[in-house]
Write a structure and sequence with these properties.
Elements: H1 2-13, E1 19-20, E2 32-35, E3 44-49, E4 54-59, E5 65-68, E6 76-78, E7 84-88, H2 102-105, E8 143-147, E9 156-164, E10 168-174, E11 189-193, E12 200-204, E13 210-212, E14 224-233, E15 237-246, E16 252-256, H3 261-264, E17 287-290, E18 298-301, E19 306-310, E20 316-325, E21 331-340
Antiparallel strand pairs: 1-4, 2-21, 3-4, 3-14, 5-6, 5-12, 7-8, 8-9, 9-10, 10-11, 12-13, 14-15, 16-19, 17-18, 19-20, 20-21
């Protein structure tokens, strides 16, 4: 019996990351229910597809920068979950002394990145108009990325986005010094290709840098992702949060917070809602952290909040969250109910 149990455990651990939900008792006769684990440190990105009630997992820590991959796309985004900071340093040339002055870098404001997924609002959203401010020659300025998960000179990278067209980006990404400790005064131009089947092309700054494959599933196969990102929150705090971001490929979201609205919402309700395409349309506030006096705390699900979601296939669903804990009380196990209404 023990050997059989071990074999079953191995089969489970080696199963595909594209998982069908286990059948469980549903709270509503027409509902489907989904639940999964985000990992002990919320390290997983879990991409969910409503039409098939399936999900795919990815490792969020692999990437640092992502480039919008649509034909007309120009957005460049950072992985805010990795505690990265972006600054414009007002230079275009790597041979300027200030281009390697880490103390000088800190005199420039940190550029924050909201999670809406709007290219013009990203930390490097204005790269096409960011000319160096010290000289009058043409070209786009240098951004400095501070990778606070690294130490020493590896903590800093520099990037110039030189151009974008229908097929790719031209960029220069450099360290501050080479392997001998000498200042880098020029950089090699790199091509970042676009893939029409992806929302983004993902790039890792580790070692000499590389393009990452399969960091995000095909954009037609999922509707939203449970992930970690930074967000402005109540009290003016900008910090990390675990929430849900929508697929930027055709997904639209509306909210309804009326009492007992979930059961009443049907296909005739759709036209009364204002749908948005912002990626944080679902967001994080379907749960709240409550901490009674004396320490400790727990997550509470917003009882009245229903999301109406238009998926990548053009179908409409209503969805509400039920829990953020497993049956054993382990946090990071979102559970939600959803029904196709059109």
């Amino acid at each position: 019996m023990k050997q059989a149990a071990i074999i079953l455990l191995l089969i489970f651990s080696l199963s595909s990351c594209f998982k069908k939900e286990e059948p469980i008792v549903l709270p509503n006769g027409d509902s489907e229910l989904a639940s999964f684990y985000l990992g002990p440190g919320y390290e997983k990105d879990v991409f969910f597809d409503l039409s098939t009630n399936t999900y795919q997992e990815r490792k969020r820590a692999d990437w640092d920068i992502r480039f919008e991959a649509s034909k007309d796309g120009y957005g460049v985004y950072i992985n805010t979950a990795k505690n990265m900071v972006v600054r414009r340093i007002g230079l275009k040339h790597l041979n300027e002394p200030a281009a390697v002055d880490t103390n000088d870098f800190k005199n420039y404001a940190e550029l924050l990145e909201p999670p809406e997924g709007i290219a013009s609002k990203s930390a490097m959203g204005d790269w096409q108009s960011y000319n160096e401010i010290i000289r009058n020659d043409t070209g786009y300025g240098i951004y400095v990325l501070e990778l606070r998960y690294n130490t020493g000179y590896a903590r800093f990278k520099r990037i110039q986005i030189l151009d974008v067209d229908d097929d790719s980006y031209s960029v220069v990404i450099t360290d501050l010094v080479d392997k001998n400790g000498d200042t880098i005064i020029s950089g090699q131009k790199r091509k970042i290709p676009k893939d029409p089947n992806q929302n983004f092309t993902y790039y890792s700054l580790a070692d000499t840098g590389r393009i990452l494959e399969n960091t995000e599933p095909d954009k037609h196969t999922w509707d939203f992702v449970f992930t970690r990102y930074k967000q402005w929150m109540y009290g003016g705090f900008y910090g990390p949060i675990t929430g849900v971001l929508s697929n930027s490929n055709k997904v639209e979201v509306a909210r309804d917070s009326a009492m007992n609205s979930f059961d009443a919402i049907d296909k005739n309700s759709i036209n009364k809602y204002n749908f948005i395409t912002n990626m944080n349309g679902i967001g994080y506030d379907w749960k709240t952290w409550t901490s009674p006096g004396g320490g400790g705390g727990t997550y509470i699900i917003a009882p009245k909040l229903t999301f109406i979601i238009k998926d990548t296939d053009g179908n409409y669903y209503k969805l509400r969250f039920l829990d953020y804990y497993s049956n054993l009380g382990v946090v990071g196990n979102p559970k939600f109910e959803f029904i196709k209404i059109q």
